[in-house]
Design brief:
The chain is mostly helical. The protein has one domain. It has five helices and no strands. The radius of gyration is 17 Å and the shape is globular. Keywords: Membrane, Transmembrane, Transmembrane helix.
């Protein structure tokens, strides 16, 4: 195994991703696909509005002082941008602005790539999930939930207009 590789951490992330996908497909997707598109997108974006939690990676004591500060900063600011884009998306969806769907695309693409980038950088540069300290639950539980949320948003955005209820 590579140095710092943590099979329990990888299995934890995989388990959270699988469980999130199953719960989403059984419980969440049937509900959101039956909702008017703007309402469903607003509901799913609301979950992402809490991504400011990633800023805690830059808080002394939340993570190990040995955690690469560049990685912590990239994660924190990327999440704050994603949370801000989610909040803006919620607002323009609520106001039924013509920019609403393009804004959701921007938020969802940014948010997805931000999470995947954090996993990639974490896997290639951090290699020791123990350095996340109290923040271990963010990549182990919260990020898989967020990734599934992004997938659901993409599914709604890619659905033909004839298959979605109008808002």
């Amino acid at each position: 195994m590579p140095p710092g590789f943590s099979l329990p951490f990888v299995l934890s992330v995989a388990g959270a991703l699988l469980t999130s996908a199953v719960v989403a497909s059984v419980y969440v997707w049937p509900l959101v696909r039956a909702m008017p598109r703007h309402d469903a997108l607003r509901l799913l974006a609301a979950f992402h509005a809490f991504r400011f939690l990633g800023m805690n990676f830059m808080v002394a004591g939340f993570v190990s002082p040995e955690l690469n500060p560049g990685f912590a900063s990239e994660v924190g600011w990327g999440d704050l941008i994603a949370a801000t884009l989610a909040l803006i998306s919620m607002a323009v969806l609520s106001w039924r602005r013509s920019i609403a769907i393009p804004m959701v695309w921007i938020f969802n693409i940014w948010g997805t790539f931000d999470l995947l980038n954090a996993y990639y950088v974490g896997a290639t540069k951090i290699r020791n999930p123990g350095l996340f300290g109290a923040g271990i639950y963010i990549p182990a539980l919260y990020v898989p939930l967020l990734l599934v949320g992004h997938a659901l948003i993409f599914m709604l955005l890619l659905k033909p207009a004839s298959e979605t209820r109008k808002s």
